[in-house]
Input
Amino acid sequence: MKLSISILVFLALFLIAIPAAIGADPDDYEGSKDHPLLTRMPGFYIYGYEESEYDSAEFFDSKDQKYVIEGHKYEIKYQLKEGQKAPGQLNVVKNYTNAIRKIGGEILSEHDDANMKVVTGGSETWIYLWADSYGETYSLTIIDKKALEQQVVADPKAMADDIMATGHVAVYGIYFDTDKATIKPESDPTLKAVAQLLKNNPTLKVFIVGHTDMTGKLDHNMDLSLKRAEAVVKELTGKYGIDASRLKAKGVGPLCPVASNKTEDGKAKNRRVEIVEML
Output
């Protein structure tokens, strides 16, 4: 019995000595944590933290090619603790790029900041690192890439009502690969709803109009918007059996914005497909 009591006392003291979360720092911002893939530099604590289930971020390669990646997003900001020696900007950048290389990752660009990518088991993690010139503060923007789980589905009746009232309807549930006309699989519910709209209204003929934001050159966006509209027409005729004579693809690029292109939210609103009644 005495042995059992001694063991219980030892276990109680041992459990008290363990922090609430292994690797947590009492100075860390409340509710924050390191990304599962990456530890922090020694002597740093988290002073800013945001995490969202589904968002986007921009990453760039050495040729300044932009990649807009969507998925689970982390924004983690680190600050050097008081009394600790600053490692320097280059040291911070090299530590992270070397760590990514060791696990088979790719360094897209590396200067006084770094864009990195890791592919493991079919999943992608994109990382942007920024550090100040002394290495006293640095931040990580991380996207665990994943497809959006479509929760809001377009309503054929609501689309028909908008067309009857205004002659057109904006459709936001058709998604494309970045800077391409390849339709993503998560677009299926919306495409199905558009097809149902046309089946419910057999005399309706429409223009399928592609729209882009104002990122990049005008000629490129005009061409891209047309190709995206053509991809939608191809999907509606080939997969859903809509008569091709009822559809015409057009592209207007960034020329008909519905919001400012100066913000990411505005750009997202401008990237759309519109259905316009053909008389």
In short: The longest helix spans residues 218-238. The longest strand covers residues 44-60. The chain has two domains: 23-145, 156-277.
